[in-house]
Amino acid sequence: MSYSERAGSDGRKRLWLEEEIQEDLKWCIEVKEVLHSGASEFQTMELVSSGPFGKVLLLDGKVQSAEADEFVYHELLVHPAMLLHPNPKRVFICGGGEGATAREVLRHKSVEEVVMVDIDKDVCDFCNQHLEANQEAFANPKLKLIYDDAKAQLQQCQGTFDVIVADLADPVYGGPCYQLYTQDFYRDVVKPKLSPDGIFVTQSGPAGVLSSTEVFTAIHSTLNSVFPSVLPYAQHIPSYNDAWGFNVAVRNASMPLPDSAIKLDQLIQQRINGSLKFLDGLTLLAVTTLNKVVRAAVQQEDHIYTVDNPRFIHGAGMKTI
Predict the structure, then answer these.
(1) Does residue 60 have an active-site annotation?
(2) Mean per-residue pLDDT, 158-182
(3) Which residue, of 43, 68, 72, 83, has the greatest Cβ tally within 10 A?
(4) Crossing angle between the packed helical segments 216-224 and 292-300, to the nearest 10 degrees
C-alpha cells in the first residue's frame, strides 16, 4: 500500500491510496483525509476518509472494512451461520477487532454471551474510538472482550459454543494469524469446542473467477477434511474489488442446509432485531450458488492448509504469532 499525489481532470491535486492486489495489479482510491497512520505490535493500521467508500480501515496494507459496504461482509459472515443453528446462545469470535461482527451477532435475540478474542488491543481501541457504528456493541454487557491469541483462549474456555466465527485478517505471508486457517486448528481446537449442533464460519479470502484458488478453495478443502458438511458462498464487495468468500461448517451431519427463501425470511424476522440491509432469503440462496468457474475450482481442490504447507494471498504482514 502506498500514497501518491496526482492532478485530476480539473487540475486539482488529489491524494490517492494505491493497494497492490497482485504484483502486476493495483487499484486506487481517492483519499480525502488520512485520519490515522501507524502500527501496533502486530500490524500496520491506516484509517482514511475516501471518496467512494467513506471511512476505510486498512491492516497490513489491505482494505479490511469500508463504511459504505461493510454491512455486506459482516451480514454474510455472521447471519447464515447464526440462522443455521436452531438456538444460538453462546458465540465465540476469533478476531473481529473492529467490532462489526460482534454488532451483528448481538442482534440475535437468543444470544446470551459473546466471547470475542483479538490479539491486537490497539486495533480494538482504535476502532471503538473511530467507527461509531460499532460503539454500542463494544459497550454491550453480553460481550466479553479479551486481548490475546484466539487459539489459546478458545482452548482454555470452559464449555462449548453454539457458533464460532473466524473474522480473521487475511492469510498473508508474515501476517498475524494464518495458522488459524489450518487443518490442525479446525480439527483440534474448533471442532471440540462446538456444541453438538455447533456451526463454524470463517471468512475465506478472495473468491472471484481469477482469485478463488489463492486461499478460498483450499480453506474449503481443509474444512471438508474435518467437518461432515461445508457450505461455501461468495459475494462481490465493492471496496475489496473482488468477490469475497466464506465457508460455513456444521458439526451435525444431519443438519439441513437452507433451501427455502420464505423460511429464511421468517427466521430473519423472528430471530433478529431490526432489519438487515443486504441479506434476505433469496440473497442467501443466491450467494450459495457459486458460478461455474469457482464451483469447479472448489470441486477440484485437494490442498489441505497446514502450518508447513500454507497458502497466502498477495501481500506481507509485520508479525506472525
Answers:
(1) no
(2) 89
(3) 43
(4) 50
Q: Give the residue, 126 or 233, on which the prediction is more confident.
A: 233
Is the C-alpha dihedral spanning 282, 216, 320, 38 positive or negative?
negative
The beta strands (E) that lie in the chain are given as: 2-7, 13-22, 25-39, 44-50, 54-59, 62-66, 90-95, 113-118, 143-147, 161-167, 172-173, 194-206, 229-237, 242-250, 313-316
Burial 66-78 (b: 16+ CB within 10 A, else e): bbebbbbbbbbbb
Mean pLDDT of 78-99: 97
All cell numbers assigned to 187:
480439527
Q: Are 160 and 154 in contact (CB under 8 A)?
A: no
Amino acid at 202: T
Q: Which of 118, 167, 170, 242 is catalytic?
A: 167
For residue 13, the model assigns a pLDDT of 76
What would the grid cell of residue 225 be? 477434511
Q: At what angle do helices 261-271 and 70-84 cross, to 10 degrees?
A: 100
SS3 label, residue 58: strand
The count of other CB atoms within 10 Å of the CB of residue 15 is 15
Closest by CA position to 237, among listed 77, 107, 95, 94: 77
3-class DSSP assignment, residue 319: coil
3-state secondary structure of 129: helix
pTM across the whole model: 0.93
* Closest by Cα among 236, 219, 273, 258 to 80: 258
Residue type, 163: V
Alpha helices (H) along 168-314: 183-185, 216-224, 261-271, 281-287, 292-300
Q: Is the per-residue pLDDT at 63 higher than 50?
A: yes
